[in-house]
Amino acid sequence: MLRPTLIITFLVFTLQSAHAAEPIRLGLNYPSTGNYKSEGLELRRGALLAVDQINQSGGLLGRRLELVSLNSAARAEKARANVDRFANQGAAMIFGGANSEEALSAGQRARELGLLYFPTLGYANEITGRDGHRHLFRESNSAWMSARVLGEYLSWHMPNRRYHYISLDDAWGNSMEQALREATKSRDRARHGYSKIAARGARRDDYLSALQKAAASDADVLVIVLLGQDLVQTMRLAHTLELGKRMQIIAPNLTQSIVEQAGPLVMENVIGTEAWTWRVPQREKSETGQAFVERYIALHQAYPGSTAASAYGIVRQWADAVGRAGRLDSEAVIAELENHRYSLLKDEQYWRDFDHQNVQSIYAVRVRDRSEIMQDRFKQDYFTIIHRMDGEEAAPSLDDWQQERGDQLQLQ
């Protein structure tokens, strides 16, 4: 009489054990081809390091993490389609991307499927502003935040200058140019000229024409609002034209991989912003940040950049929130993330509840002279931090955010 009961009990236990043994999958949208493939490599390295550390510490909810990576090629439609593929594979969370269009499109699809999405290299204000929603959390800084720290530095050290803008004609390019014009009081487009670069299909002649227009202006400051290979090619042409000798060049969102691709000689003295560099943990006295740097160096014989740090931080923060919630349910994780304060790779950060923007200190940086860079052991010590702004000061206020949102004053 007991045998059927024992068999049923054994089957239930076996099924539960099999389920518990299944890994928790995380979906990484990353560009392994195209203009942003170098950033994509950094994204994957940072994410894998976090996954490995969590697994070595016993996993999450008694299960291992598994990173599932798909090439987005930095295309919004491809990133969106990948979200469906991740969902079909049972991903519990999705993150990544190399531009704002990816973040907006993939984030919206994740919302429709009830999944959380964490953009990495998406800086457009719309991501956590006009188009923000409950299922999207942005770890990287916004265009507004970059503009605030740059605007303050430039107003102190280079006041009353004439600007010229070369901007990508997409969500990030337009919001970055607008925010920086506001921050530097260069709103007058007749006095402070501009050129637009097509978001897709731009050619060498397009970059050259825009630079020649800048060269013919009376500008003291040239702002190049481009990313990836667009920025690399434009900087190489600007170097050939020797524009850096008579203009201060600003590239608002710099990354380590950009300097590597363009070359330190081409990028000398360019000013931009970073949310993190490999020297920040030492500056902010962050032991966990320094441990991350050392582990990354040991694995790759290179310094981690802000792109790797962002991916690493997202995985760690999501996993911590799941651990506090005790389950993978998106609503439970959202509740644990909102207004959660933490210190991981630098000083204190937190996920703001009303817009899901990560509020953190932002740094204005200058690319060091090539002669200094070449003395470094990896020849990768690219940035000097020239200014710092607290996250609360850099991020838009609740009033600013509500003005951008219009009638929709809460995340849906």
Automatic annotation (TrEMBL):
InterPro entries from the UniProt entry: BCAA_transport, Leu-bd, Peripla_BP_I
Domain Leucine-binding protein: 23-369
Protein keywords: Signal
Source species, domain of life: Bacteria
Protease found in the keyword field: no
UniProt keyword annotation of Signal present: yes
Pfam families: Peripla_BP_6 (PF13458)
SUPFAM superfamilies (alphabetical): Periplasmic binding protein-like I
Signal peptide interval: 1-20
Family the entry assigns: Belongs to the leucine-binding protein family.
Protein name per the record: Substrate-binding protein
Species annotation: Stutzerimonas kunmingensis
Lineage: Bacteria, Pseudomonadati, Pseudomonadota, Gammaproteobacteria, Pseudomonadales
